[in-house]
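dumping this here so i dont lose it again. seq + smiles for pyridoxal-5'-phosphate
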Amino acid sequence: MFLTHLGCTSCGLRHEWSRLQNLCTACQKPLFPIYDLAAVGRALNRDSLATREKSLWRYREVLPLPPDVEPVSLGEGGTPLLRAARFGGGLGARNLWIKDEAQNPTQSFKARGMAVAVSMAKHLGATRLAVPTAGNAGGALAAYAARAGLEAHIFMPRDTPRANVIECRELGADVVLIDGLITDCGTEIARRKEAEGWFDMSTLKEPYRVEGKKTLGYELAEQLDWKLPDVVLYPTGGGTGLIGMWKAFDEMEALGWIGSARPRMFSIQASGCAPIVRAFEAGATSAAEFPDAHTCASGLRVPKAVGDFLMLKILRESKGGAVTVDDEAMIRITREVGSTEGLFVAPEGAACFAALKSLLASGKIAPDERIVIFNTGSGIKYLDCYEQ
Ligand SMILES: *Cc1c(COP(=O)(O)O)cnc(C)c1O
Ligand SMILES: [Zn+2]
């Protein structure tokens, strides 16, 4: 077991990993799991990964679950990195790749975070799990809680895509529909959790979902033969994947698996909910709540994120950026991606393809760079967004 403790991302205060934890007890900021990477480096050689199982658990030494504990798993991770020759070719981008996260259990990359977080919550004795969700996190929690034999209490906005609501119910979860946004769902859980005995699984308010999502960074490096791409386009809501990948890059550098070069990280948001883009453009170090948030890309409908300061730091350190895409452009480009690449992408993923066009046009990305787009979910969950 290489996990040593949890460290606050803001004030650095140490917390014990062996107890259920949410935010830093001193400053209410997210906690990161910290590993003895020198010991990991002695125990694990990157070349030995190749023969391991094709799931995120192949990176077991840099995941928090003790080695003698069986993970709660549905085969998450190990998704393909697909060359987008036809879509990219049309734009002159000859080195474009899609990390297809729709191929995870419950059809989105939320499975990565929940597999690790539910495994840890169960190991540490939680029995009732609660989560506020814009959609896909609810489906993932419902699935992993069912598999673990734990209760799932899922709070979603009333206008969450129907597929997510039905999926959670059919996976046996208790579903509460709220007239409001994901932030209102979070407030409701915070108000009731003590009396109900719920453990709050909100992203980054719980220390282990980010560990599941950081495996995106490990997979990317491994699939590109330990050379990171020049550019990453990431559809950003709570930002857990972006923050997790950045953590993975630092861990891999400490392990000697990669060098100090980093991709330019771009946050893609919906024009109807773009708190990070706004804060990035304003030169701010934190993001104000975005008023009247609306977009059909429900995963991007996060008006206020607890990891805002971490995202903004990463975008600047990486010399990346932040851009918006409107819903109409997301829906329009879905068919272009589908008909050239064979993937029915989620609107969140589609937003990155639309953003790529504008970033190429403005010269912020050069066509010969190695570019990776994250398709974070499947279009199948968003049929309400499309005309019949
Ligand atoms: C949750 C979600 C996102 C946003 O992910 P974060 O890591 O929270 O920024 C993007 N796309 C889809 C499909 C999602 O479900
Ligand atoms: Zn702190």
